[in-house]
Amino acid sequence: MSGPAANDATTASSNRVNGGEALIRSLEMEGVEIVFGYPGGAILPVYDPIIDAGLRHVLVRHEQGAGHMAEGYAHATGKPGVCMVTSGPAATNVVTPLADAMLDSVPMVCITGQVALPAIGTDAFQECDTTGITRSVTKHNFLVTRAEDIPRTIREAFHIATTGRPGPVLVDIPKNIVDANNPDAYFEWEWPDDLDLPGYNPNVTPGDADIEAAADLLMQAERPVLYVGGGVLKARGAQALLELAEMTDIPVVTTLMARGAFPDTHELCLGMPGMHGNYTAVTAIQRSDLLIAMGSRFDDRVTGKVGAFAPDAKVIHVDIDPAEHGKVRKPDVSVVGDCRIAMELLNEVLRQRGLPESNPDRSPWKQQVSGWLEKYPLTYQQSKDGELLKPQYVIERLRDLSPSDTIVCSGVGQHQMFASQYWEFNHPYTWINSGGLGTMGFSIPAAIGAKAGMPDRTVWAIDGDGCFQMTAQELVTAAVEKIPVKIALLNNSFLGMVRQWQSLFYEERLSEVHLGYDLPNYVMLAEAMGCVAFRVEDVDEVDDVIAKANEINDRPVVVEFRCHADENVYPMVPAGGSNDDVIVDPSQSALLDADRAAAAAAAATEGTNA
Amino acid sequence: MNRPGDLAHHTLSVLVENKAGVLARVADLFARRGYNIVSLAVAPTDDVAFSRITIVVDVESAPLEQIVKQLFKLINIVEIQELSAFDAVERELMIATIEASTETRTQIVELVNIFEGKILAVGTAAITVSLDGAPSKIDDFETLLHDYGIRDLQRTGRIALPKMDRSVPVLRAVNEA
Ligand SMILES: Cc1ncc(C[n+]2csc(CCOP(=O)(O)OP(=O)(O)O)c2C)c(N)n1
Questions:
Q1: How high is the ipTM of this complex?
Q2: For the ranges A71-80, A597-606, B125-134, B162-171, which has the lowest average pLDDT?
Q3: pTM here?
Q4: CB of B66 within 8 Å of any CB in chain A?
Q5: What 3 state SS string does A467-481 have?
Q6: What CATH number did the domain enclosing B37 receive?
Q7: Pick among 3.40.430.10, 3.40.50.2020, 3.40.50.1220, 3.90.1170.20: CATH of A208-375
Q8: Residues A389, A395: contact at Cβ < 8 Å?
Q9: Is any Cβ of chain A less than 8 angstroms from the Cβ of B21?
Q10: A323 vs chain B: nearest CA distance in angstroms?
């Protein structure tokens, strides 16, 4: 290719740029340090200025990986993740990460190439209706039609992605407006100072009256629970939460998206609620008289049967997205705004009201809660001699042998639930997973993105054998780009979570869930991709290998832990069931049955007495 | 049958940025979240930067509050007004071609006159009429026309604006239908 012809004619003014240069310069203006991407026809003109750009480009092996890396980067750093891919099949390959980022409110900007404007609508080669396809899986998307609109659009895209309730924004860019050979793609560079978004003005500061009303309910509550969701992390509100919980002495549950928002080792922490939540977290919510929903959204995996969820509780709902208020559960006090700001205001009001000294006495509630904690801790049976590993044990050892600020990413399935349950998250932004969409294959690319953003931290991906096979090729990316992530592959030879449902709800009729332990040979596969690889089958080897893996910092590491094929995740609330009917580990069920019988008998006598 | 003039419906007057794809975003949102649109009318406002979409929604398909909140999350939506029949001026236009034999033609013309509609075209066996007015009036007219045989009928869907504040002097006599 000869040098861009239009260049000579247009470089008279040094401020003249073409669309491709403008795009890269706009990314630099937004402070972008790293772009995860994959080139192709329609985006080619943008890949030329990348050679000279002041940002790092990570060449992935599949566009889905680029999207999840951008998400992992955003989760870990709080900064928007950026991915860039070409048109057509590449754009459709990022649909999954966009949907994932949408459901988990991850700030992300995705740039897609598009066929030249005159070709749009003609079924041109690699044309697809990218903005149409991604409309419902993005917070917003743009099709840019003029080169001079690129800087403003990029600015608006980052603004929308990172403010209010964060989310993915896609910018679709036709080839001709970034083409250095097109004289019309040149314009006088200008970075806009203002945004033109008359319909977008998220409300971040809650109203005083709502904060006062929340404080009133809080002071009256006898059995309150702080039900903390991912919004607290998005709002960078962990410190304000700690202060709120300690000042009010209210126990905290952290949802799957909020693990780490409150330290697991804190005496007020009850762990995770929901389908595979701790008995205590689930039950405390059920018995509570006040739920303070902080950046949480009453997801069905938390509520179970909505009509039976926390039946006696009043609700204070704090969330920046007005549409979450009343979507599932009607709040008694609705606080629309940023969680951190809301908690800071609330803390101030509560201090003025004399807290912590004037806290009501809630010792009966606290005793009840600690009773549950004692009776129904998370539990599993360690494998007997000669048996394969228990996934819970592997995670406990990983947890204890890795730095406390290790970033843990997970795939989707049993290993995800075990990781969330058994890791102790004591720092915010150390847990990265696909909660809303439940995207298998999330963990490896997300871990790479997280490690790229936080190179000094240890990053472990806890993955299943099914998930691993969905995105394992990104380990090549990690090896080539020298992003030394560590993968704990919990190989149970099954699509374990699906196998669990078939075992429990389909009379053990296992259908299409067996993968086998040996194919692929994970150690050989990992080595072929440039990783150091280990296989562990014996309890005695676990610690040594983890220690070895933790010492390797120049290459990605894969440790295949051969795990029991038939371990189930407990506790469990069957889908659509009431949270009152939580199924505990078989070793605890006799105790729970006795407790339930006693409670029913007590209720019956109360009934006759009345 | 649910008719567009029924009170169970609710009217949203939605001011949107006049940008490509806005209508698709609105329509997509309704489809994706399972909300029913009864009718929808869209046209630019006096300011070319904005259009107004009047949407009649079936409030039984979802709580109106949730529909409005989800709509408002669309970046291009600038303002949403909920208009109840009591505080809105609503209009709709209908055109219809009716079977009209020599015996029935005068009856139809009479009906059109009573409703203050217009005759747009007369053929040997049919007649095309138009009527504008409040949606309920058009419902009534449509019902009466049914007996004669409707060949084709098209309604625009309603457009609506909030009623003027009582304290604001009304400059022209408004002919309430
Ligand atoms: C892309 C995708 N396909 C299918 C599913 C449904 N699904 C949820 S968990 C699971 C099994 C995961 O298996 P594995 O990765 O081996 O993890 P395990 O449950 O055994 O820990 C499946 C198939 C999903 N969540 N995502």
A1: 0.90
A2: B162-171
A3: 0.94
A4: yes
A5: HHHHHCCHHHHHHHC
A6: 3.30.70.260
A7: 3.40.50.1220
A8: no
A9: yes
A10: 5
